[in-house]
Amino acid sequence: MKAVTISSLRTNMKSYFDEISATEDVLIVPRNNNEDDAVVVISIKEYNALTETAHLMSTEANRKRLENSIESLKVGNTRRFSLEDGKSVEA
Question: Is the pLDDT of residue 88 over 70?
Answer without folding.
Answer: no
